[in-house]
Amino acid sequence: MQVITSARPEWIFPFTRLQPVQFRRLVRLVAERGGDAITDGRPGRQWSLDLADRMLLVAAYWRTNLTMRQIGPLFGVSHSAAHRVIDTLGPLLALAPVRRRQVDQIAIVDGTHVPTRDHRLVLQPGVAT
What we know:
- The chain is mainly α.
- The chain has a domain at 9-93.
- 39% of the residues lie in helices and 0% in strands.
- It contains 5 helices and no strands.
- The longest helix is centred in the middle third of the chain and has 14 residues, at 51-64.
- The relative contact order is 0.14.
């Protein structure tokens, strides 16, 4: 049973902090980047959620920091399906989608736990990561 859906616009803002108009623009952008054509890697098998619901799942995951086991049931999918959705659509939201980043490159995103007492890792001042 799917609890959260993009078909009900009142669920968009609380879980994404995006207005429904902004959310629809985001879905269109991902569709243009090929998000609609993505399957879960098995020939012939389509996603159980439409693109808008998959985008809502990704945005809600990033915004709320819920675990896969928590967010999957909210959308009526397994935690592994939620992971596949986030893993495949997430890169399409990047400003410049990349397949791999350099091994020595550090990326810090909202919600990442940064070890402040680990002195083995030294960030160079003025270097964008």
